[in-house]
Amino acid sequence: MSSKRWSVGFLLVNVCAWVLMIATLVIVPDTLTRWTSIEFARVLGWAAASGLWVVIAGAGWQQRVAPLTRFGVQFVLWVSAAVIAIWISEQANVIAR
Fold it and tell me: Taking the C-alpha atoms of 78, 82, 85 and 87 in order, what is their torsion angle to the nearest 10 degrees?
């Protein structure tokens, strides 16, 4: 792999985008549950978080990674962010009770 493909800057941008996704997937649904169901709130959170990912890291992935590989790796990253966000949200709700 070339250094352009997996530079430190590229990895750092992805880590920051992934952490921002998790924060969005925690904050948006937990905020919207006052007005809507948790399922619908999570869909809205997912839409916001995936949009942030595309804006922040999407171009770097398109330049460096083939489409099929990009889909697989990003799928794992996005699902892991969602699972961690749900876990954090559930833990916060348990503590709040």
Answer: -130
> What pTM was estimated for this model as a whole?
0.84
Length of the chain: 97
Instruction: Note the pLDDT tens digit of each residue in 24-37.
Output: 999 999 899 899 99
H helix intervals, 1-97 = 8-32, 38-64, 67-96
Of 27, 33, 59, 63, whose CA–CA distance to 46 is shortest? 27
Angle subtended at Cα 75 by Cα 70 and Cα 79, rounded to the nearest 5 degrees = 155
Q: Which two structure tokens, joined as six digits, stand for 69?
A: 């590989």
Between CA 44 and CA 56 the distance in angstroms is 18
With contact defined as beta carbons under 8 Å apart, do 28 and 41 qualify?
yes
Question: Is the pLDDT at 3 greater than 90, yes or no?
Answer: no
Q: How many C-alpha atoms does 55 have within 13 Å on its Cβ side? A: 8
